[in-house]
Request: fold
Amino acid sequence: MTPVVIYTSTGCGYCKSLKQWLSDRDIAYEERNVTENPAFFDELHALGIFTSPVAMIGDTPVVGFRPNKMSEVLGLKK
Reply:
C-alpha cells in the first residue's frame, strides 16, 4: 500500500476525523503533529500548504478531511 503521512494539529476536529477514517479502514499512517513539532509545519510550508489536516498519500497531498478524494487516491472502492 502507498505510504500515508498525515499532518495534524492539536485540538483539530477534522484531524481527529481523518485519523478515525484511516483507522476504520485499517490504513496505517504516520502522524506528524505540527503543534508539537513546528518543523513539520515547515515541511508543509515548503509545499505551499498552510493548514491542517493534510494527508500525504505517497507524493499526493490531500488537504482537509476529504474522504472521497482519499478513497480515490488510495484506490479504494466507494
